[in-house]
Backbone:
C-alpha cells in the first residue's frame, strides 16, 4: 500500500478501536490516499464510505463515522458539527495558509481547534500522519533491500559481505 495510506491506517489502529464493523468515512478518493485507505480498512473488516466532490452532504456521512479520514487539500474543511462525538479523526491534509501574523503555516483539512472538542482522538497537522509516512517509507525501503539481496544471492550464488557481518 502507498506509504501515506498505510500510515493513516496504522494511526487508526493505535486508537485501540476494533476495526471489524467499524463505521469509517473517508473524505477524498485519490488513487494514492483515499482509495488505498478504503481497501486496507475493508480488508480489516471495517464498513467504509468514501466521499468525493460529487457526494451529496458530506457532513451527513461524516457525522455517522466512528473513524473519519480526511484527505482533500481544503484547509479546515471539516468542522466540529460534521464529526460524531467520540470519533477518531485522521487528518491527512497538508495546506499552506497565511496566519494572522502574516507568516505562512501548515494546516490540515480539519478545523482542529473546534473538532478536538468533539472527537476522542485527532491527529495533528503538522506532526501526525507525515512522520509515520516517512517511517513506513524507510520500512518499505528495508523490505525492498532484503528482497533484492535474496534475489541477487539466489541468482548469482554470492553472499553480500556486508550482510554477512
Residues:
Amino acid at each position: 500500500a502507498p506509504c501515506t495510506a498505510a500510515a493513516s491506517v496504522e494511526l487508526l489502529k493505535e486508537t485501540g478501536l476494533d476495526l471489524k464493523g467499524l463505521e469509517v468515512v473517508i473524505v477524498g478518493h485519490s488513487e494514492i490516499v483515499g482509495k488505498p485507505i478504503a481497501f486496507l480498512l475493508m480488508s480489516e473488516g471495517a464498513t467504509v464510505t468514501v466521499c468525493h466532490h460529487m457526494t451529496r452532504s458530506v457532513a451527513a456521512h461524516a457525522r455517522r463515522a466512528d473513524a473519519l479520514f480526511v484527505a482533500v487539500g481544503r484547509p479546515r474543511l471539516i468542522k466540529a458539527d460534521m464529526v460524531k462525538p467520540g470519533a477518531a479523526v485522521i487528518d491527512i491534509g497538508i495546506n499552506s495558509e497565511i496566519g494572522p501574523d502574516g507568516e505562512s503555516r501548515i494546516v490540515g483539512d480539519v478545523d482542529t481547534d473546534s473538532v478536538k472538542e468533539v472527537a476522542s482522538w485527532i491527529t495533528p497537522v503538522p506532526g501526525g500522519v507525515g512522520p509515520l509516512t516517512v517511517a513506513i517509507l524507510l520500512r518499505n525501503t528495508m523490505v525492498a533491500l532484503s528482497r533484492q539481496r535474496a534475489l541477487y544471492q539466489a541468482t548469482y550464488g554470492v553472499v553480500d559481505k556486508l550482510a554477512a557481518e
Notes: The helical segments are 3-14, 34-43, 58-62, 112-115, 129-156, 161-164. The two ends are 32 Å apart (CA to CA). The longest strand covers residues 23-27. The chain has one domain: 3-164.
